């Protein structure tokens, strides 16, 4: 990878420099009490390939940064629909030293339904938390608690999930470095709630066509972000956008 723009950690790498593994980690450092999203899109804005999955538009550079961002996070936040569609598993061990062996996975579900791929215990992988609302109903909440444990079902909000309260709950559990992996509805909701501090966006050199969703769909957000880091690798552009300095 080579650096095209670096306003975040200028001492780590100047524009034009080739990025090593250690430098990449410095460029993507994840401070405490910060929520970032990581998404991938094509040149025409599609957030998935023709099969509806992000895996079909990933590149090697995107996968490298994806792994790094998970290594740096305390918890990965994902919508239940995306977890089911992408067949999410519990997070595996970090590839570099971290605060814990594996990050946690927090799934947002209005219905309090635990995706089947996450229902089984896996002692060698990260744990699963379910974020839901009281409106899901007591029967659904009991089923989720039976599967995951009472302390792993976070109930915030009545008619809708209170994402701000959920993020605060995660921080109180020592999980303040939050990595949101979407999908599009959750990303839009996080941005609309003012909870998104930065966006790591990979743009792959592909014109997809079709009618795939954008990376954020649903709630109007209007969140202004500023490009602070741009890397390039074989046509793939890796951006790190942050909120403007106050």
TrEMBL record:
Ranges where the Bacterial bifunctional deaminase-reductase C-terminal domain occurs: 37-219
Source domain of life: Bacteria
UniProt cross-references to Gene3D superfamilies, sorted A to Z: Dihydrofolate Reductase, subunit A
Keyword Oxidoreductase: yes
Pfam family, one: RibD_C
InterPro entries to which the protein is assigned, alphabetical: DHFR-like_dom_sf, RibDG_C, Riboflavin_Biosynth_HTPR
SUPFAM superfamilies assigned: Dihydrofolate reductase-like (SSF53597)
Name of the protein described by the UniProt record: Dihydrofolate reductase family protein
Organism: Nocardiopsis lambiniae
